[in-house]
Every structure is written in C-alpha cells, then in structure tokens.
Write a structure and sequence with these properties.
Number of domains: 2
Number of helices: 9
Strand content: under 5%
Number of strands: 0
Largest sheet: none
Distance between the termini: 71 Å
Radius of gyration: 29 Å
Oligomer: single chain
C-alpha cells in the first residue's frame, strides 16, 4: 500500500475543491466562456503571484532567522562577559586615567532608553581613552588573559560568530593583546616605547569591549529585564557596584 504525505492529500483536496467550485459556478451562471477566461487569466498571473509571495515569505523568514541567530549569539556574548569580559574591564579600569568620566557616561539605569545607549556608544567612539598601566599591572593583565585564552579560542571556533563582526573583532583584538603580552619575557623591564605600544593594544581592546558591553546590555533590557537588573547593579564600570538590592 502506498502512503502519501499530508502535503499530497492537501494538494488533492485543494484541486478537488477548485473543481467543485468551478462546477458550482457553472451550474449557477451557465457561462463556461467567462469561467474559462477567468481561469486562463489567473493562470497567466500565477508566476508573478508566486514570485511576489516567495519574496515576501523569504524576507519574513530571513528576518526571523536573523533575530533567532542574534539571540543565540547574544547568549555567547553573555557567557563571554561572565567568564572574561567583566573581569577584564575591572582590571583595565585600575589604570584608566579618565575612568571618572567614563563611569559617569556608563552609569546605566533601569529607565535608559535607546537614545541614552546610542549616546553612550557615541561617547566611547569619539573620546580617546588614556591608560597608564604600571608594569606590574601588565603582568597581572597578561596572567589573566593567558588563563582565559582557551575560552576565547573556543569562542573563535564557533562558526556562528561569523555573522557577528563586532564581537569577532573584539575576540581577535584580545588574542592579539594576549600574544603581545606573552611574547615579552620580562614586562617589568620593557622600555617606555614598548609600553606605549602595548597601551595602544589595550585601548583598542577596551574600546571594543565597552561598545560590545553596551550593545549586549541594551539587548538584555529588551529581552531579559531580570538579567538587565542584575547588570545595572553590578556595572563593572562603577566602582563599588554590588548585586545587593537596597
């Protein structure tokens, strides 16, 4: 016995329904000429109708697929900040010269809207961050990044991240900074010129890190307000921030 799928049964049902409606139309109006003319006219426009419908459906599916993909990618971004990003922000903050101004601009609140997030990102992109790390702090930064290297390299192996250029750029910048720090045998003895070079790599990472954190936090506000509440309370850019609710 041959078993047909539900699609075949649906197709046969629709054909039978059309034939029945055509028969009903003829039995009422007895005008086969107009009926066949309208049928032929509809057949003529079927390719255009299929094209338009397929374009609309493809667009809708593409938008839904992108939203679903970005939701999954934001889960990866959240894992990154939990495992590496937040700790890295706190480390770099220790030798950030203009951290007071940065703290003021990044003091996100529960009632922030899209404009405030955009203004914060614009501020980060427009200002020139100044960092003056002590050589001992570079050692601490190197040890931290080396301990997180397997995690970061694991993220780079995720093929889905190819659709998230901004986050991928951040991961590559982190890998480069890690390699630069690890390539020096004695960070306590590097010359000032080399220290300036490392500061440039740190600033590049930090700028990308801050922008990614702001975009991720805005995503939390929209989709996961309970996680957003915790992020506001534990803001890594605010000194003395705490998860405690007062």
């Amino acid at each position: 016995m041959i078993h047909f799928s539900w699609r075949v049964y649906t197709f046969l049902f629709l054909i039978a329904l059309s034939a029945a409606l055509m028969g009903l139309h003829y039995s009422i109006f007895h005008n086969a000429k107009d009926l066949l003319f309208n049928l032929a006219l509809n057949i003529v426009f079927i390719p255009i109708q299929v094209l338009l419908v397929s374009m609309i459906i493809e667009k809708v599916l593409d938008v839904r697929e992108k939203r679903s993909m970005m939701k999954k990618l934001n889960m990866v971004v959240g894992t990154f900040f939990s495992e590496t990003g937040t700790g890295l922000v706190r480390l770099i903050d220790h030798f950030c010269v203009d951290r007071d101004q940065l703290e003021e601009k990044l003091a996100i609140q529960s009632d922030w809207d899209g404009k405030k997030f955009r203004d914060a990102i614009k501020f980060v992109r427009s200002r020139h961050l100044m960092v003056e790390p002590q050589r001992s702090q570079l050692v601490e930064l190197r040890d931290f990044l080396l301990s997180k290297r397997p995690f970061v390299m694991g993220l780079l192996q995720n093929p889905n991240l190819l659709a998230h250029d901004r986050f991928t750029d951040l991961l590559w910048a982190l890998c480069h900074l890690t390699e630069e720090l690890a390539a020096r045998d004695d960070l306590d003895a590097i010359p000032d010129s080399d220290l300036d070079h490392l500061c440039g790599d740190i600033v590049r990472c930090y700028d990308l890190l801050v922008i990614e954190w702001l975009n991720y936090t805005q995503h939390l506000q929209k989709d996961y307000p309970y996680i957003y509440s915790l992020t506001v309370r534990t803001n890594p850019f605010i000194s003395g921030s705490s998860a405690l609710v007062y």
